[in-house]
TrEMBL record:
Protein role: Major role in the synthesis of nucleoside triphosphates other than ATP. The ATP gamma phosphate is transferred to the NDP beta phosphate via a ping-pong mechanism, using a phosphorylated active-site intermediate.
GO MF annotation: an example: kinase activity
Gene: ndk
Top-rank taxon: Bacteria
Residues reported to bind ATP: 9, 57, 85, 91, 102, 112
Family of the protein in this entry: Belongs to the NDK family.
SMART domains: NDK
Protein name as annotated: Nucleoside diphosphate kinase
Keyword Metal-binding: yes
Cofactor: Mg(2+)
The enzyme's E.C. designation: 2.7.4.6
NCBIfam families, sorted: PRK00668.1 (NF001908)
Subunit composition and interactions: Homotetramer.
Amino acid sequence: LERTFSIIKPDAVRRNLIGKIIAKFEENGLRPVAMKKIHMTREQAEGFYAVHKERPFFTELVEQMIASPVVVQVLEGENAIARNREIMGATNPANADEGTIRKEFALSVGENSVHGSDAPETAREEIKFFFTDDEIV
Ligand code: ATP
Ligand code: MG
């Protein structure tokens, strides 16, 4: 079984969508094996999104991620990384398929409700960024 890292972003937490989003994961074969609600610091958000620091939307992205709490999770399942990306849908909700989280819940390309790791190496790094081994059960 593979593991991936997920964030339920501030826009979704504010709109009381935590349960509906976790239901999507569980209905599609992804089991939460670690979870916590946190309010990210600016340092955490900038570190987490460091790969995007030269992008024009970086400041906006960091501001959105620290505006209010998020839920961080480790999801486990068969092909969890790719499966999670499928369940999330396209980055821009205008391009997201029917039934995906972003199609149903996202507000815009910036406030797009969820984050999910894009590859095995980033999944490992992102899990380590927020969780210790003993928090994964
Ligand atoms: P994520 O990494 O959050 O799972 P992603 O891999 O689909 O999403 P990335 O290209 O990695 O998308 O961008 C990271 C995040 O930056 C996006 O989820 C979105 O919130 C924000 N973002 C990306 N492109 C734009 C844009 N053009 N304008 C505003 N925000 C953007
Ligand atoms: Mg990404």
